[in-house]
Each structure stands twice: as structure tokens, then as C-alpha cells.
Amino acid sequence: MEMLHLHQHRRKRYLAHHHPRGVRAHPSFCRIILAVYEPDLQCPKYMPAGSYYLNLNWDVKRIAYEDTLDHAPPYIIYLDHENHEIVIAIRRLNLVKESDYKLLLNNRLGMQMFDGGYVHYGLLKSAIWVLNNESETLKKLWQENGKEYKMVFAGHSLGSRVGALLTVIVVNHRNELLGIP
Hints:
With 181 residues, the chain is α+β, with helices and mostly antiparallel strands. The chain has a domain at 55-177: 3-Layer(aba) Sandwich (Rossmann fold), CATH 3.40.50. Helices cover 43% and strands 15% of the residues. The protein is built from 6 helices and 6 strands; from the N terminus they run ααβαββαββαβα. It has helices at residues 2-18, 28-35, 65-68, 98-105, 121-145, 158-172, and strands spanning 59-63, 75-80, 85-90, 113-114, 117-118, 150-155. The chain has a 4-stranded mixed beta sheet, sandwiched between helices. A two-stranded antiparallel ribbon has the order 4-5.
């Protein structure tokens, strides 16, 4: 009986925290990450109750699996004028896809030195691929919209690791992206 009570208490806390009405209160990039899973934001299949609360005109670029040529998970670039952010949101790895397994397994302990430590080689390659493919887009968006816009690299699950590596790469090489502060 004690376990049932504990489970019910945890479930109520979980539901209170994760209820769809709470999605609006989350930072905008969380909703953008959720939108990465949609094949078409005009006709959403997985929309939380209410809406994603995204302006479809600000969806700059959507990169599907076919477009990544098995180098990275799908992602979107979203220009959030309301919060003055240029967001790259990266989905989690889809372990049903063989290419994602290859990316995840492309690593050996001590294989890749990075910024004073070691990093997962496959995820680093993925981050570098995204940056190489999107650096011109990011530069253009930053120039056209003003340098007060922040760049946000976000993701879900292993996509967040790619986003974190993107952040470190951009900070270490900001001169290549027009001297981002």
C-alpha cells in the first residue's frame, strides 16, 4: 500500500510539472525543440495541447534526415524575433536508424582530444558537420537581424550533446562567425 501511495504522489507531481498547459511557460527554445519532431508545422501531428506558440514565418530552415546525409540528427533553425534569438534545435538520435547507431558508436576512450579533455568523436563530427553546413546561414541571420540577437544551440537527449559541442566550437572560433561576443 505504501508503494502505491508513493507512486500516486510521484505521478501527481509529474503530471503537474509536465501538463501540456505548462508548455507555454517553458522557454521558447523548448517549444522549438518539440517542433523538430514535426514533419510539417503547417499540419502538426504531435502538437501539445493548445499550440507550439511558434510563428511559422520565423521557421528559417528545417533539415530532415535525408538532408543530413547521415552526418547529424535532424534540426531546425528558428529566428525568434520575440526573444531576439537565433535558435538551432537538434532532435535526439533515432536509434531505429542505422546512421544514428553509427554516429553513437563512432568513439573509443581517449580517441578525440578537445578543449583540454576528451569528447565523443561521433558527436563532435556531427556538431562540426552542422556548423560547416549552417555557418553561412547563421552569419546572414545575425547580420540581417542585428548583433543583439543571441545564438542558442539546443537539443533533446543526444541532440543536446551535439548542441553543447556546437556552443563550445562557436565560442572557441567566434571570429569565423563575425566575432560573436
